[in-house]
Amino acid sequence: MFTTTPSPRARTRARRWITVTAVLVAAIGVVLIARHATTPLAPPATTSPPGVAPTATPTAPVDEATALASRPMLTLPPEAALPHAFTTATAGPPITVPRPAPLADRVISDGFPASAEGALGWLTDFNEVALRGGDPATYLRAYVESALPHAPAPQGSGLYALLTSFRDRAGIRPGELKPGLTVTYEVTQGLIKGTADAGRFAVVCTLGQLSFDYQGQATSMGIGDCQALRWTGTAWRIAPGSRAAYATCAWPGSIESVTAGYRPLNRDGAR
Q1: By CB count within 10 A, which of 93, 137, 174, 230 is most buried?
Q2: Cβ neighbours of residue 204 under 8 Å, at least 6 residues apart?
Q3: Could you list the residue ranges that cross the membrane (predicted)?
Q4: How far is Cα 231 from Cα 224, in angstroms, rounded to an integer?
């Protein structure tokens, strides 16, 4: 039986691919840890002396929008985000994302209509643009431009945490150009978590394939993102108030993505 020894160049390419994949898995783990760390804990139980009726603990009223945004999403292990088999099952029919009206002077279109599907179209466009290149500095600029006053800080976003963790672990500074590294995010699925305030508030989620290509060696993962959005009268913006609960990360089209409620998107010409 004959065997061949990989060339030094092939071994180097393999090491790069393994490194990129390992860093991505670690970065996903960091985001999941942060997700659990920011989940509100139930108040501790209190006990009353014998013969004394327990006193109810006063709680602040929670409005509909806050309750919708903070309701937890399904949690899956990091491995669910890795490429694996597709399923023929569905969580429902495709969601048609409207075509945005052409508007100038903005990288991210504001031409989506005042509907939940329009909000999902806006977030799809926002995430694909903000993640292009995989630079947290780019995401930060896009977020700040698209957030209303008193919106959650961008540093708490799951996507920002993922990009920052990836660059930290790969030894690449924010804003630094890395020759041979390309990063893209292609949204293929989404879900509408719900709406409030007569449809002027919406929580929507995207699920897409985040792909890293480093000097010819490519790897991908399924990454989700949920945002609470507010209709301003002319455009969708990241809403003030509570941050939307972190999205479920799963390989698009897998049984896990269906279990999480993601549905295919009909982009209908949206950029």
Answers
A1: 230
A2: 116, 119, 120, 123, 190, 191, 192, 193, 226, 227, 229
A3: 17-34
A4: 22
Structure tokens at 202: 């919406």
Instruction: Write b or e for each residue in 144-158: b if 16 or more Cβ atoms lie within 10 A of its Cβ, otherwise e.
Output: eebbeeebbebeebb
Residue pair 77/36 in contact by the 8 Å Cβ criterion: no
For the chain, the straight-line distance linking the first and the last C-alpha, in angstroms and rounded, comes to 54
Residue with more model confidence, 86 or 164: 86
Question: How far apart are the C-alpha atoms of 12 and 75, rounded to whole Å?
Answer: 35
Report whether pLDDT(120) > 60: yes
For the chain, give percent helix, strand, coil, nearest 5. 30, 20, 45
In which band, very low, low, confident or very high, does the pLDDT at 106 lie, cut at 50, 70 and 90?
low
Q: What is the DSSP letter of 240?
A: S
Lowest model confidence (mean pLDDT) among 49-53, 64-68, 152-156:
49-53
Q: What are the domain boundaries of the chain? A: 10-38+73-266
- Residue 5 corresponds to which amino acid? T
Per residue in 143-192, pLDDT (tens digit) is 999 999 999 999 989 899 888 887 887 778 877 877 888 899 999 999 99
Closest CA to 112 of 97, 94, 95, 127: 97
